[in-house]
Design a protein that fits this description.
Rossmann fold, 7 strands, globular, binds 3,4-dihydroxybenzoic acid, binds magnesium ion, Cation-dep_OMT, SAM-dependent_MTases_sf, O-methyltransferase activity, Methyltransferase
Length: about 220
């Protein structure tokens, strides 16, 4: 089935996702550095992130897990001129490549890349940090429950929280799979369930060029 999912994503992209030199160069640079591009969001998912931000006229965005900054580009281009993105990357090598891509895309003004474990960076933000309008959680899956709680602390009523990779080809329902990343996602589902700070939430499974995975989406009460 993978080939068909990939071909259908190509069909969708060829119709609905405009060719873009900056995004193309970002993916090429990622590959040239020897990093696998399967960690990046698919173009049609990037467009969905862009649209969620546009729909809600978000100005302040938080991203956990920059990797090559490919998703960061999609988030950034949805923002008005006075928009701001704080993106956090835990691995030095990924952060260096991400910064290179951000600089090339001339997004330095809007994008603040911090290096460190996302939970530590978030805990060390100044007390008076303004809440974010949109939060994209895409860092290590093991820490998703912690990231969800920290994100809720940095939210206001109406903040949108988008969590990537919450299906993992169905591994989340395979009881024999006790990997920390998978346990982390399961714990996140439990935490979201009836959470007093969440107005509504759901998750969707997806297939496409990145295989079978999915995302969760929450609106803060
Ligand atoms: C992985 C992580 C991601 O954020 C993603 O989108 C795809 C795969 C991974 O760690 O395998
Ligand atoms: Mg991801």
């Amino acid at each position: 089935m993978q080939q068909m999912w990939t071909d259908i994503d190509s069909f969708i992209d060829s119709h609905l996702i405009p060719e873009d030199q900056i995004l193309k160069q970002t993916l090429e640079n990622t590959e040239n550095h020897g990093f696998p591009d399967h960690l990046a969001v698919a173009p049609n998912q990037g467009m969905l992130l862009q649209m969620l931000i546009q729909m809600n006229q978000c100005k302040r965005v938080l991203e956990l897990g920059t990797f090559a900054a490919y998703s960061t580009m999609w988030l950034a281009r949805a923002l008005p001129d006075d928009g701001y993105i704080l993106t956090i990357e835990g691995r030095d090598t990924h952060a260096a490549m991400g910064q290179e891509n951000i600089d090339r895309a001339q997004l330095k003004q809007k994008v603040d890349l911090k290096v460190g474990r996302a939970a530590d960076v978030l805990r060390n933000l100044p007390e008076d940090t303004e809440a974010f309008d949109f939060i994209f959680i895409d860092a290590d899956k093991q820490s998703y429950p912690e990231y969800l709680e920290l994100s809720l602390k940095l939210s206001h009523s109406g903040t949108i929280i988008f969590l990537d990779n919450v299906i993992r080809a169905g591994a989340i329902i395979d009881k024999s799979n006790k990997k920390p990343s998978i346990e982390g996602i399961r714990e996140m589902f439990v935490a979201m369930q009836n959470h007093p700070q969440i107005l509504s939430c759901t998750a969707l499974q997806t297939v496409g060029s990145k295989g079978h995975d999915g995302f969760a989406l929450a609106i803060v009460k």
